[in-house]
Amino acid sequence: xxxxxxxxxxxxxxxxxxxxxxxxxxxxxxxxxxxxxxxxxxxxxxxxxxxxxxxxxxxxxxxxxxxxxxxxxxxxxxxxxxxxxxxxxxxxxxxxxxxxxxxxxxxxxxxxxxxxxxxxxxxxxxxxxxxxxxxxxxxxxxxxxxxxxxxxxxxxxxxxxxxxxxxxxxxxxxxxxxxxxxxxxxxxxxxxxxxxxxxxxxxxxxxxxxxxxxxxxxxxxxxxxxxxxxxxxxxxxxxxxxxxxxxxxxxxxxxxxxxxxxxxxxxxxxxxxxxxxxxxxxxxxxxxxxxxxxxxxxxxxxxxxxxxxxxxxxxxxxxxxxxxxxxxxxxxxxxxxxxxxxxxxxxxxxxxxxxxxxxxxxxxxxxxxxxxxxxxxxxxxxxxxxxxxxxxxxxxxxxxxxxxxxxxxxxxxxxxxxxxxxxxxxxxxxxxxxxxxxxxxxxxxxxxxxxxxxxxxxxxxxxxxxxxxxxxxxxxxxxx
Length: 480
Ligand code: ADP
Ligand code: MG
Ligand code: ZN
Hints:
The two termini are 60 Å apart. The protein is 38% helix and 20% strand. By secondary structure, it is of the alpha+beta class. Strands 5-6-9-1-10-11-12-13 form an eight-stranded mixed β-sheet, with helices on one face. It is elongated. A hairpin with a 4-residue loop joins strand 12 and strand 13. The chain has three domains: 4-290, no CATH class; 295-412, no CATH class; 423-477, Arc Repressor Mutant, subunit A (Orthogonal Bundle). Helix 5 (297-306) runs antiparallel to helix 6 and helix 12 (423-434) packs across helix 15 (467-477). The structure holds adenosine-5'-diphosphate (ADP), magnesium ion and zinc ion. Zinc ion (ZN) binds at residues 21, 24, 26, 38-39, 41-42, 146.
């Protein structure tokens, strides 16, 4: 039996953080009293007319440009008809065959489209606490109804659960840096549906897919897809066929339950929204959106990798623009060190020191001035101080906000030992004398035994000696 390959496409709903809803003047809110942000338009009273939110259109353009999408010069709204209590009009205003953002790309994954639509109201299954006339009740909060959404759809280009979750993280980071959404998955401002199928490895045809709805964390996205792939592989291995359906993944039990067999587009009776004119994205609107884009994570990561950072480090920095800019400031103030060394200090040692001091770093007004960290990194690179001493100096910089590295080194007596005064050599000699057994083992070729003597030297010098130099001296004195 050939191996089964996973095929995954994602649909991501992003709630836009505009001031008002998509087609009316109601304020957006999260966590307010239910049903206080409503009006005749979002409650679908007869005779009302929608007015598109200009800010939402501008945000959609930013998202489209960030995803390298073609922007439609003229796109239209459609009515998507369905009957459910969260939808008082009995249709959702969405986009269908001419979305505002067409084909694009983020990383290696192709974007099919990104379109504008309105969110449904929120249904709350109140169970017995919401009992009405003796039966269990579902309640509806219309505050959310009409919130602007951009739905981003990918091509089925993802090949595994971990890859899908990782890419979704990149997408969220990208949208977050556009400043158009809170992208908070727990609050539902970013929601992920995963379309999943399997096929024989090497095949170019698509298998029948199922859709996992509304997973509200990246971990659940990964686990949900893993569970569904396992289920589908089990069916195919047993000679069965996968049925097209929509599933819910319960992260607590790990169970997948069927919500419905999948509807077709014609079930929604899409037709052009007669109450709205086309969205015309002018050159000026597109230029304004483009001008407002920051350097995005994928581009920043690629630039850092080009400067010699490894992939994980580049990704870490690119995901935090504040820290990335701080890193660049330290690098700019540095005289010799390599970007990789500076990145290690910023993402590793500095982060650890801040955590140790229980400081939430604000890279806009940092506790440790970039120039001070640059000087410190320079001193360790030049071996004026050991790495361990550098760490001690950093702790002082973090805790006191002092900026004069040279003064701290002087005051704390942290200057690196070694050089010509012979003091380090004397300490090494004493350590060898104090542990003849280890010395014998080293002479007999047991390389690991050297650690015991190095440890003693480091303790004696309070970490001020350079490890490489200590090793060299021990071997020299043992005549190796
Ligand atoms: P539908 O008409 O069911 O909504 P679409 O063709 O619009 O299906 O695709 C919706 C999403 O499902 C897209 O992200 C797409 O990449 C993905 N998709 C489509 N076919 C498959 C498949 N066979 N396996 C996995 N994902 C798929
Ligand atoms: Mg679809
Ligand atoms: Zn309203």
